[in-house]
Amino acid sequence: TGRVTLDPGFVNTASCRSAITYIDGDAGILRYRGYPIEQLAEGSTFLETAYLLIYGELPTEAELDAFDARIRRHTLLHEDLRSFFAGFPRDAHPMPVLSSAVSALSTFYQDSLDPFDAEQVELSTVRLLAKLPTIAAYAHRKSMGQPLLYPDNNLSLVENFLRMSFGFPAEPYELDPVKVNALDQLLVLHADHEQNCSTSTVRMVGSSHANLFASVSAGINALFGPLHGGANQAVLTMLESIKADGGDVASFVRKVKDKDTGVRLMGFGHRVYKNYDPRAAIIKRTADQVLERLGQRDELLDIALELEQQALSDDYFFERKLYPNVDFYTGLIYRALGFPPKMFTVLFALGRLPGWIAQWREMIADPDLKIARPRQLYVGPTERDYVPAGRR
Ligand code: CMC
Hints:
Elements lengths: L20 E4 L4 E4 L2 E2 H7 L2 H10 L5 H12 L6 H6 L9 H15 L9 H27 L12 H10 L10 H14 L6 H10 L5 H12 L7 H14 L4 H9 L20 H16 L5 H14 L2 H5 L7 H11 L6 H21 L28
Helix pairs in contact: 1-8, 2-8, 2-17, 3-6, 5-6, 5-10, 6-7, 6-17, 8-13, 8-16, 8-17, 9-10, 9-17, 10-17, 11-14, 11-16, 13-16
The site of carboxymethyl coenzyme *A has 20 residues, from loops.
Keywords: Acyltransferase, Transferase, Tricarboxylic acid cycle
GO molecular function, one term: citrate synthase activity
InterPro entries: Citrate_synth-like_lrg_a-sub, Citrate_synth-like_sm_a-sub, Citrate_synthase, Citrate_synthase_AS, Citrate_synthase_bac-typ, Citrate_synthase_sf, Citrate_synthase_typ-I
């Protein structure tokens, strides 16, 4: 069977060729289709960035308008899928609700499941981009015991999502441009990150020719873990526990450095970045501005700043090249927008969706596509004879 190399966590193994996202982890560089993340965060929008990732080029104004209009027409959920939300326990975490509802799209939209039919792939792409915000908002409303609002297709994707998340049927929802722009920028920053755990999952599931909905649903479940997308919720829990401890940052840092405690500094460290995560640098500035402008500058931001500063000047973190990652400051912004911590990872999923779609489409179109099938090094018993139960 040839030589098999052991590479736990795929630290050195490339699983594919990709033309979507470039990362230089030592230099702290991230580019989508060649465009630096700083420029996209400043000048682009989430929808435009989604187009760039999926189709490879920035759209013209007419192309973007057509893309936007098409997505707006697909924001509604099938009524039977809408009633799905009633079946989950009220205190359910919204991430499994999200992955279940996305998985269920395969049952409601059976005319867009063929991975090798370009029109069907296009339709499932548009359906996912249009419906995930509606599903995410419903998961949130359900957990609050609040009404599910129908989407309003006069609004942009982000505006619509905020209205469905926080509006009420009996009164107009007032959109706050500071919130709309902050959320839009966060989604841009999360839109792709090459072969991370959830994206590799999407590709792995898709490599068996599973449809786009099934593959993305698997990606959402991979994102749920606290070492991946779940870290943004874990950061807030960590900051709150430090606050409850009288804001004693130094004692928390000591706990992290003592390996026996098993406590990690959440929102720090990255498999690829051995330098400041460029997304964290942008988000730190945004957090500062947004909290200031919303008049919500809080103690948790001060704790986060203090924690970052102490960690960055500490040998433990320096030697291991541990820097703040994308999740370190996002929770503070999500909280200021009004989302409960349980929703943070759902917001990450909304942002990452274009990346998952782009990567799945690149994989399906790859002439070298093979079903993903890692090998192993077997370390179990050698051959032995079966012994009937009475003689063991
Ligand atoms: N706090 C304390 N020590 C850490 C941390 C941390 N956050 N991250 C890594 N280390 C230590 C680790 O204990 C190990 O030390 P030693 O060499 O003495 O055994 C060394 O640094 C290398 O860590 P690793 O676990 O081998 O690194 P990895 O590449 O397997 O893990 C990671 C990367 C992101 C899972 C990890 O840094 C981590 O658990 N961070 C906290 C969770 C987090 O913030 N995740 C979000 C990642 S970015 C967005 C996303 O992917 O969703």
